[in-house]
Design brief:
- A two-stranded antiparallel sheet has the order 1-2.
- It is an all-alpha fold and 307 residues long.
- The chain has one domain.
- Strand 1 and strand 2 form a beta hairpin.
């Protein structure tokens, strides 16, 4: 048991070092967050600011500091939520090992197949969380410069949300990685995740801006619930400030919250925060069960082929 644990730790260290050693893979994993930053700096920031002021009756104003904080919080809620999944796919060393045949070499050593697969999952989770944690810190620094309205509870809950979404992203990436065995499939899946995930999770534009049919479809995806978690905790502080200090009516605050996905409604029912967490965690556990099941089935199939 102790020997197997040492092998697991060694493999985890190996996988993490391989990821950070490959500069191209590291850059690609940050490509989607970088695109979001560029979009924000070019025109999204102005669009968000105009959208907020559009809710205000004539004569009412919101301070520039509050608007800057709101827009910055919305940006980073999108970046962190997307990174939890896109980084997990790009840092999946199992796929890289499959492509360069290292996976087969490791499979015929004394290391158990379960230990090998577990090492891929743990290292994927650790690298994904490390990068997302750095992005989280950068968001706090940015908000401290333009307007910091997050409470201590908001910060803690953002950290917990990051942990939950990194867990989901890592399990999802590990599960999909079981079925990828060619460079073409890897490129196709990476391109699809990088381009589509930002849209289906409401990172590029609020889900409330989509049509009814698309909103209903997105309400069945766990990515939606994870993104709303980040938006809630990034937006709560500044919206409370606007309500209590700048005396903007509560109904306007509620309209802004709904329009920018600070609250999720499914079939006209508001989803509480604890339910958002339960969907993300429950989906992660379900995917983990499938990951273990299909890993076992592929192992049995491999043994049958050898016979």
């Amino acid at each position: 048991m102790r020997s197997e644990m040492q092998k697991l730790i060694t493999l985890i260290n190996r996988n993490i070092k391989l990821y950070f050693k490959d500069k191209i893979t590291f850059f690609v994993s940050l490509l989607t967050p970088l695109i979001l930053v560029v979009l924000f700096l070019t025109f999204l920031k102005g669009v968000y600011a105009d959208s907020i002021t559009a809710f205000l009756p004539e004569g009412m104003q919101i301070s520039k500091k509050a608007i800057e904080a709101f827009c910055g919080g919305w940006l980073f809620s999108s970046i962190v939520s997307v990174s939890c999944v896109t980084v997990a796919f790009c840092s999946n060393i199992m796929i890289i090992d499959k492509l360069n045949k290292s996976f087969q070499d490791l499979s015929i050593t004394s290391v158990k197949k379960s230990t090998l697969l577990l090492s891929y999952f743990i290292s994927n989770f650790l690298t994904t969380f490390l990068i997302c944690f750095i992005v989280l810190i950068v968001s706090f620094v940015y908000l401290a410069c333009v307007g910091f309205f997050l409470t201590f509870l908001d910060v803690i809950m953002l950290l917990i949300s990051t942990l939950c979404m990194c867990l989901f992203g890592s399990i999802f990436a590990s599960f999909v990685g079981l079925f990828i065995s060619s460079q073409g499939a890897h490129s196709a899946v990476s391109a699809l995740i990088s381009s589509m995930y930002g849209f289906i999770s409401g990172a590029y534009m609020p889900i409330s801006q989509f049509g009814t049919g698309i909103r209903t479809f997105l309400s069945f995806l766990p990515s939606t619930y994870g993104t709303v978690l980040f938006k809630q905790y990034y937006m709560n502080g500044v919206l409370n400030h606007i309500f209590t200090t700048e005396h903007i009516p509560g109904e306007i605050i509620e309209q802004i919250r709904l329009s920018f996905d600070g609250k999720l409604t499914v079939f006209n029912t508001s989803i509480p925060t604890w339910a958002l967490f339960m969907v993300v965690i429950g989906t992660s556990l379900l995917l983990l069960g499938f990951y273990i099941l299909f890993s076992h089935l592929k192992k049995r199939k491999s043994h049958s082929n050898r016979k």
